[in-house]
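Minutes, project check-in
Item: structure for the 408-residue chain
Input as provided by the requester:
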Amino acid sequence: MKPIAKSSKLASVSYDIRGPVLDKARQMEEEGQKIIKLNIGNTAVFGLTPPDEIVQDMIRNLGDAGGYTDSKGLFAPRKAVVHYTQQQGVKGVTVDDVYLGNGASELIQMAINALVNDGDEILIPAPDFPLYTAVVGLSGGRPVHYLCDEGAGWLPDLADIEAKISPRTRGIMVCNPNNPTGALYPDDLLRGIIELARKHQLVVFADEIYDKTLYDGNTHTAMASLADDVLFITFNGLSKNYRACGYRAGWMVVSGEKRHARDYIEGLNMLASLRLCSNTPGQLAIQTALGGYQSIKDLVAPTGRLCHQRDLAYELLTQIPGVSVVKPKAALYMFPRLDPKIYPIADDQQFAYELLAEEKVLIVQGTGFNWPEHDHFRLVFLPNVDDLREAIGRIERFLGGYRRRHSV
C-alpha cells in the first residue's frame, strides 16, 4: 500500500516539551523505572491543585454545562475578564472583545491563523515558548526570532527587534512574564516594543499567563495598559496562576486600536465560531477564580512554596561548576547555561537523552525553545524541596561525569 504521509506543513514543526526525549521517558516508565520530570509546568502532578472554591463552583454548575455556549463564551466569565482588564488599567475593553478558549494555547493559534498569510512574518522571542514558532509555521508564515539577552537578565534587545522587521512583518509576540527564562520586563522596555509596533504598524501579541506568579515583591504591567493606538491581543488563563492546567480555561482580549482591525476581528469571530465554543465546565471556573482569594500570593511570598523552591533550585544549580543561571523574577522555570568550555555539547537533545538514561531526570534542551546554541536547558522548579534536591543532585552527578569524560 502507498504510505500515508503527514502534511508537509508539519515539516518544520516541533514541540520538544513533549518531544522525543519524553517518548523515551515514557518507555522507561513502562519498564518500571521512576523518572523525575522537570520538563513541563503541569502543576497538578506536583501537588499544586486548584483552589477549593473553584472546584466546588464547577461541581455545582456541572449539571447546566452540557450545552454549547456562545462562540466567544458565557457572559459572566467574559464580564469578569473585562473587570480584570479594568483593574490592570487597560482601557476600552467590552465583553465583545473577550474570547474564551480551551487554554491560552488554542487562542494563540486562533489569533495567528486569523492574521498570517503565506510568507508573512511574526517576530518571536528566542528562547521562545515553542508553540509560537510552530503555529506561525502551520499558518504558512515565517517565524523570525529576536534575541533575548542573557547578559541583560534575558530582556529583549530592541535594536535586534527593529533590525529584523521587514515589509512582511505583521506582528510581534511578547511573553511577559517569560517562559522559559522567568524574566519580567520593565515598563520602559515594554514601551520601547510598543513604539516599534506603532512605527511599523504591527499587532502586539502579549502572552501574560504568568502575570500573578511574581517573586521578591515584583509587579507586572499589562502591556495593553501602556497605549491605546496599537492593536493588542492579550492571552491569559487559569493554568498557572490558579493551578488548573487540565481545565483548559483561557481568555483572549482585543484592545487598543480596533477601528482599523475590523476585518481581522471578523476573522477571529469566524474562527471562534468554527470551533463552536470552548469547554463549558472550564468557562465556569473563570469568574470564581478572578473574583476569589488569590492564593497564588501565598505560594510566591518569601515563605511560600514556589519561592522557596525557586531559591533552592537557583542555589543548587549555581554551585555546580560551569553552570550559571539568571535568577527568575517570575513564572515556574529557569534556563541554566552550561559553559561550552567545560561542557562541549554538540547536540543538546542527545545531552538530554544521556541525562535521562543515566540519572532518570527529564529536562528539555535549550534548542527545544528555539535557542540557537546547544548550551542551555529548561528546568521546572515545581517539585517539592526533597524531590528538587534529589533531581538537581542527580544533574550535578551527571555533569561531573560529563566534565571528566570531556576534559582536555
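Outcome recorded: The longest helix spans residues 385-406.
No further action items on this chain.
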